[in-house]
Every structure is written in C-alpha cells, then in structure tokens.
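Budget justification, computational time. The allocation requested in the original proposal was used primarily to generate structure tokens for proteins on the priority list. As evidence of use, we reproduce two of the resulting records. The first is shown immediately below.
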Amino acid sequence: MSEQQWTVYLSGEIHTGWRDEISAGTRDAGLPVTFLSPVTDHAASDDCGVDILGNEDSAFWKDHKGAKVNAIRNRTQIARADLAVIRFGDKYRQWNAAFDAGYAAALGKPIITLHDPALTHALKEVDGAALAVAHTPAQVVRLLTYVIEGKL
C-alpha cells in the first residue's frame, strides 16, 4: 500500500453518478485518495456570483460573475491535486471541463479523460493532452490502483 495520500480532482459532467462510482471503487480497493471537485449543484454553480455579490441585469454579466467565483474554487483545487480526471458526458457540452483539462495541463498535472468512445473525435485535442483515456469509471479505478499501488 502506498503511504502517500493522493488528491484527485474530478471535473466534468454532473448529471450521472460517475464520481460516486470512482469514490466507492477506490474506497473498496483501500486506496489512499481524497477527491476534490467543482460545485456539482447546477443551480448553485450558476447563481453563486449574483447570490453572493449582487444581481446583474444581463445574463452575460451574471454568467461572467459566477464563472469567476467558481474559478476561485476550481483553480485552487486543480493546483492542489496530484492528478485530474476529466469526464465528458454525451448529453451536454462541458466547456468548463475542457477548460479544467487545459488548466490542469498548463500546470503539468497528469490528466485522465473519461468519456464514451463516440466522443473520441470531438475530444481528440483534450485526449491528446491526457496520459490515459478511460471509457468507464471502473477503468479509472483500475488506473488509480495501478498508479498508486503498482498493481494490475
């Protein structure tokens, strides 16, 4: 067992239980992992800027303010993480996840992307920056097991 406590940032789509699957899998494997993530409550993430700092008349400025408030959390946590898992779902465009992947890459953080094979072409540049491309949460757990424990 590794003595290092690993910190993994889980970025991306918020409409499925992929984070819970990875968390449960690493817990079941006894891996020393702490998970960080952006705010996954969609309404809170959208409204944080205006709720905290005051209303905006324009949707553009509302989104701008919220994005900046969320960036305080996201950038800090990505910088703190040992690696990032970036999940792209097929239902919504996750521009925020693509930005997180780019930010993690700029910081030199190892990236694992997680998406359906049907999205491979659309994500070729993001996958090109990743050190592994997984298609299931179970594969991410196996990757983390290998990286942390050196076990297949």
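The second record produced under the same allocation is shown here.
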Amino acid sequence: MMLLLIASSAVVSASEQLPAVSNGGYSVEPVHNVGINPMSIKSVYSSITQGVTNWHSKTVSTSITSLNVDLNWGYSSNSLRLKIYSPDGYVFGPYYDNYDGANDGRINLNIINSNGIAKGTWYYEVYGYSVTGTQGYYI
C-alpha cells in the first residue's frame, strides 16, 4: 500500500497549493496561534537535505476528532514540503511554509473530522523542497 501512495506523490509548486481540503468528512486548517493543540505526533528531531524525502508516522488508537501536525524547522530561507497520508486512504497536501499565511519555517495544521479521525497509522512525508546544506526540523 505504501508503494502505491509514494508513486502518487508529485512535486507541486507553492502557487498550486490549496488553502484547505475537505474530503471523507475531513477538513484541514492552519493553526494560527500557539497554544494547546489536539493530539499530535510525538516530537521527533530529524534533518533533511535538498531533494530528500523523510517519513514519519503516528498511530492513532483512540477516538479523536482532531489531529495536530506541526512541522517546524524555523529557517524560512529553506523550504520543506509536507504531505500526510491517512490510514483510510486520503492524502492531504502538499503543504508549504506559507500555508498559514506566514513564511516562518513552520507548517502547523489540524486535521479535523467530526465523525472521527481514522484509527491506524498516519504517515507524514517531509520533503526537502528547496534546502541549502542540511536543515534540522522537529515534527
């Protein structure tokens, strides 16, 4: 199943990025203020270089209606891209730094579904879209 999902990935420019998606009862909203967020992936530190893809995952095993995904690299001169794959077959993204209206080295969003976020393993694809040297990040 992952091979199929990876094969469907395509590079999309920031100008083609949609401000929000809604499908399968899901909506995606940027987080504009920092505060208490819904369930999110445990913070993992990693690094990335130009053209490289890193994968991270989060298992959802409880009933929740909102999932926070926060990719933070803090250096707006480099650009990372984020795609999210749900266990029930939906692909969210691509998302770029300016998704929330600010170019600040961070993509912070909530995936919301009033019927419930799918239980299972969610995959997070972090891609070094435009990176000089090596860029560290937390997700």
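A brief technical remark on that second record: The chain is about 5% helix and 45% strand.
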